[in-house]
Here is the input.
Amino acid sequence: MAIVLGPNRYGKAETRLVRVSKDGDTHHLADLNISIALSGDLAATHLTGDNTGVLPTDTMKNTVYAFAKEHGVAEPEAFGLLLARHFVESQPQVHAAKVAIEAFAWERLGPHSFQRKGDFTRTALIDVSETAVQVVSGISGLVLLNSTASEFHGFPRDKYTTLKEATDRVLATAVDAKWRHLSDKSDWADSFAGATAALTQAFVNTYSYSLQQTLLSMGTRVLESRPELAEIRLALPNKHHYLVDLVPFDLENDNEVFIAGDRPYGLIEGTVTREDVAPASAEWYL
Amino acid sequence: MAIVLGPNRYGKAETRLVRVSKDGDTHHLADLNISIALSGDLAATHLTGDNTGVLPTDTMKNTVYAFAKEHGVAEPEAFGLLLARHFVESQPQVHAAKVAIEAFAWERLGPHSFQRKGDFTRTALIDVSETAVQVVSGISGLVLLNSTASEFHGFPRDKYTTLKEATDRVLATAVDAKWRHLSDKSDWADSFAGATAALTQAFVNTYSYSLQQTLLSMGTRVLESRPELAEIRLALPNKHHYLVDLVPFDLENDNEVFIAGDRPYGLIEGTVTREDVAPASAEWYL
Amino acid sequence: MAIVLGPNRYGKAETRLVRVSKDGDTHHLADLNISIALSGDLAATHLTGDNTGVLPTDTMKNTVYAFAKEHGVAEPEAFGLLLARHFVESQPQVHAAKVAIEAFAWERLGPHSFQRKGDFTRTALIDVSETAVQVVSGISGLVLLNSTASEFHGFPRDKYTTLKEATDRVLATAVDAKWRHLSDKSDWADSFAGATAALTQAFVNTYSYSLQQTLLSMGTRVLESRPELAEIRLALPNKHHYLVDLVPFDLENDNEVFIAGDRPYGLIEGTVTREDVAPASAEWYL
Amino acid sequence: MAIVLGPNRYGKAETRLVRVSKDGDTHHLADLNISIALSGDLAATHLTGDNTGVLPTDTMKNTVYAFAKEHGVAEPEAFGLLLARHFVESQPQVHAAKVAIEAFAWERLGPHSFQRKGDFTRTALIDVSETAVQVVSGISGLVLLNSTASEFHGFPRDKYTTLKEATDRVLATAVDAKWRHLSDKSDWADSFAGATAALTQAFVNTYSYSLQQTLLSMGTRVLESRPELAEIRLALPNKHHYLVDLVPFDLENDNEVFIAGDRPYGLIEGTVTREDVAPASAEWYL
Here is the structure.
């Protein structure tokens, strides 16, 4: 069997952009980490080092900065669409572009003063090909905890099972979620705020018998409240809080004192989707 | 459109196992980080919190430790197969298991003394379903550098291109590679050593006109030398080494003094495959 | 010259504690990372492995959890004092205890629901010896940025200087600060909130000609507004924002488009202190 | 009490330098991460923003690169001395310079091909003032493990002690050590290799009743074998390997199956020194 080149892509990862825009003395800040990957007719450079079709990754970086000046940076989804379309439209050998953006939030402290927020990272993943456009938004690092209203029991037991059934436990997770939009036009800021609020409220309001149940509840709440979305993918680590055994010290522990564990951790992953929705045109999670 | 549960899985991530085996006074060490994900008939727990089918992730962790004692830990691929098959075969509601392993190497210093090697991490990714078995091996964090024998020119220039053509540059990367085996039986240790040597030698021996060319060379060398492999996927960050401008100090810089950059970096990704090979039965990269 | 044992200490580092306290249905959360180091008559274990004086580090961990139950966890400074005093008072061979605490903040979302805040980490460093008690509070990871009102010029130039003078630049830093209290009694929560507000306001309000000037302004503001403090130590990385050269693209860059750099970075460190204050009784920074 | 400026310093941290030197077709590689901090008459910039004495940190970075060309980079200690002396001697307002270097090792694969070693990082810390010169070398991240020949018992028990006595346990640590030289002239490469070998051999050969005993043994071995050294400081995390309880699975665990723990961990710190040696002229650990 011959050995051949399969799927491939290339680009510039993690271009760090800070864009200041000025409204008189009042400044606004956009802070992004942008990764670009292009695919298309790229066999020649692999086979012979012929770089005729290889727009330098350095140029992708320059384009980010130049576009930031020319077009400004409004929402990450919009800026990603602008960039992805540019490469597909201007480079004939490029058939598809993927732009992944992390957006870091800053809180205003004054007309030109800011404090970086660390509560979570907003993400956007844009795929533009010659025939399709796909927009995915997301969030990572949103850590939520319920100190009660969570149980876990009724599970099967095999010879390696020692876990006790729990009728009251801490449930905590670091939400990593991506949601796919039905179209490439939306009020991105409102959509992100709404989806994030729905995720958070569903976590808070679900009396949980498993993190899986909470996951489905969170995903469902997002799709119910955001008609512009097709589907959502959640990866929820179960950040275990182990109840400390205080019996040796003649102390009771009524779900009050916990070890916050590092590893291992449960990991619950699932997609919630609208039935009959058009399939994704490009990989959008993992 | 109704809102429904889509693809999902769950498991225990990052169970840290150290297994000592004793051959008289001479000890041997296996040091693994093991992540398990199961999928199958798991709708009930999502919909109602009915955990009848949810083998606890704590049990998966216990199984890792019990199996380490019962079966020993030889090669990570073999240990992963054992674990993955166990869950699919023993839990009727589980239709597929994915086991991802990181293996950390230790150098012997004495009969029971060891020093951890930090040059790279060996990986294994095992997918067992009711109808298919797939074994993927890999490496991450292998950092290679050629201080010459690398050029980059002949690329297209658009209005955002400022990069100068290079006829002599440093080429450096941190190899992240996964390769899929044709079967679930192999001499895993020999296969890993051979594939790693092929990757390294191809990097060293390729006079490079682009990192893409080096990538194809590396992948091809692995498949040529390892008939047991179906395909290989490489993700090669271009760890840029920027030539420092010493002209302001009246000094020449004949490719001698470099800034080792952090971000941004180029990222070259590609698959090299045998033609007509059977397709993968499960996701195996990304 | 004989070879002898010099200064030494030992302890348990990074015990992770989450303490839930319940006020009816309303829960409260404390989330701490606690490191303990004891010193005293510990020569025997070094010299011969005689552990008569070596209270196990495992016991220190247990003590953290038991004390959390017995005494609750109010402010990190108070909890650290409790722990440090316990070891010095209960173990005759222990002459001094150092307790370092990181406290992670959570925002309330409901009676028993919380979201972790990621804006900064609050720290406390407690040193108790048989003759002295010292309390240091602090903050790390507080990232602040002024998009104007910062200049840097008038610096000396040697043959290796190429930096241009700047009359308008971005000034950004990640505040790492520790401040020493005059006594071991204070309203710790109010003191922390006040010191943090003073740091932030001074950064915002200082028209800056150097990050050093901003540092002194920040430290002075803290001491002026918090009479309970003796001195403060600040380590301020200069998180460089490099102005992008857009001239090749026929674009102006009026301090609008920046590269957020990773490495290298300036690092400005300084202490601001009250004159004639009693010296520290133990190492409290670095 | 007046509020005044206390000790302070500033500099450029983490300048990343890769230096290629060419011996015909055979290339050599030095890979360093260099941090510089200067102190002296720096009050003016703090008080008024008068930067007359503030050599830019950008200049420090340039100096690193220019010196790498002019002088080459032999051993990190020598390069650090060169840099530190330069700033103290050429800038009258600078009274002391501290240069901290991390050196990353590469293994040769060919005349101009290299693989980065990840087993440990070599460090150097140089302090030059107008009256004193101090050289400290070190190592970090050297992970060592004995799978037997370690016990821990005979410790005191208080009401919070639950730890069982161990007559056979795994002992593992990640060595973080710094050692101070008696003079500023040495065969730095030989000294580093010898000290590292002594550390490793002492760890391997010590039958240990406590990690403290191992620490003293390691430090003593270094000073015994390296007459050029004044003292050594070791920080040894006790990387706990917890024996898994396999009794629920009717399996014995004869020190064969372990959990490699993350947090918490013991931390043993100590200095070993020659008696009557001249004291350090600058802070050299922590």
In short: The radius of gyration of chain D is 23 Å. Chain D has a mean pLDDT of 97. DSSP finds five helices and 13 strands in chain D.
